[in-house]
Amino acid sequence: MNAPHSHNTATVAGLRMIEQLRQVHEPLRADIEVLENALQQLSDETADLTRIPEMIDNLTIADFVWQLRVNCDFYCNTLTLHHTIEDQRMFPVMTRNFPELAPAVERLQAEHKLVGEIVSEAKRASLALSTESSTVNRAHAAISELADHMQSHLDFEEATLFPYFRRMDRDWHYG
């Protein structure tokens, strides 16, 4: 899909929407990387396991495996909510204002559906996580698959929507 004609200036509302979406996307990018790396460390028999706790920023509520279960589940729930908001609220506003976005929005919604299936497996795998290597390997594989899909999905979404956000006089939250 071709981006709209570039504009030298962006609207205040457009810049605000770009910043809001970046504020959601950046932690999603960072957290999936931390989860993937922590599970890689846990699955690597030669790893220095003393480094793992610092990877999740000194969380001390319970043991490391419990923290990973909770954080993976929280990440998956947050991602599901984020995609639901986009599908039900943001995308309809964007396609109403910019009908030419329809093919890109269809792609994004299809990706949300695929990511939703991957998220379901990641949740199941992370909630079953224990110190047994088979559960670690399953969770690591699921989170790695999710990480692979999320990076390209977020990049495409931002590249597609940000040029349109820049042109909007009104925040999509308000229709």
TrEMBL record:
Protein's name in the database: Hemerythrin-like domain-containing protein
InterPro entries hit by this protein: Hemerythrin-like
Source organism of the structure: Rhodococcus erythropolis (strain PR4 / NBRC 100887)
Domain (Hemerythrin-like): residue spans on this chain: 17-164
UniProt keywords, alphabetically: Coiled coil
Gene3D superfamilies, per database record: nmb1532 protein domain like
Parts forming coiled coils: 18-52
Taxonomic superkingdom: Bacteria
Biological classification of the source: Bacteria, Bacillati, Actinomycetota, Actinomycetes, Mycobacteriales
